[in-house]
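Design request, tokens follow.
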């Protein structure tokens, strides 16, 4: 029975892709980790030293409530426009720099919510290598597919962030 291996616990739980993580760590560039929970986006800058991760800065989409996001729309803090605005907010907090994105075990489907966050980071001024083909359309990022009052709120928040 040569060749059978026991799968590592975090891989079995779909929490860690060790092959991807090894590649990210070998690059030596700080990572921006994007995670989507049931309610929010969490975006963090993580630096690794000898496989020990240290979180440098964090922003969640909940912080959009302090920047003009309507409290009644709190349930939509994981939407495409909220992800985009969270990315812009985090880029504004960091200033400038070169980073790589760590999406972890998130599904990386073209136009998905996690790519809206990455687009916000890039539009906010960070140097991140990415393929433009995977980003959601400008209409979805700006909330054109939503009701007029929601579109106005998104435009107001976006105007306050830039």
């Amino acid at each position: 029975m040569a060749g059978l291996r026991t799968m590592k616990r975090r891989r079995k739980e779909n929490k860690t892709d060790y092959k991807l993580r090894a590649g990210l760590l070998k690059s030596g560039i700080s990572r921006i980790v994007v995670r989507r929970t049931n309610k929010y986006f969490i975006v963090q800058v993580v630096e690794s030293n000898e496989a020990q991760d240290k979180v440098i800065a964090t922003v969640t989409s909940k912080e959009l409530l302090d920047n003009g996001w309507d409290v009644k729309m709190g349930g939509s803090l994981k939407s495409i426009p909220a992800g985009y605005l969270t990315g812009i907010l985090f880029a504004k907090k960091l200033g400038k720099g070169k980073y790589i994105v760590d999406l972890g075990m998130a599904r990386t489907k073209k136009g998905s919510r996690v790519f809206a966050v990455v687009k916000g980071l890039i539009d906010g001024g960070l140097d991140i290598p990415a393929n433009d083909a995977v980003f959601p359309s400008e209409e979805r990022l700006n909330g054109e597919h939503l009701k007029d009052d929601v579109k106005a709120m998104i435009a107001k928040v976006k105007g306050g962030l830039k």
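Comment from the thread starter after seeing the answer: thanks! Residues 96 and 126 are 5 Å apart (CA to CA).
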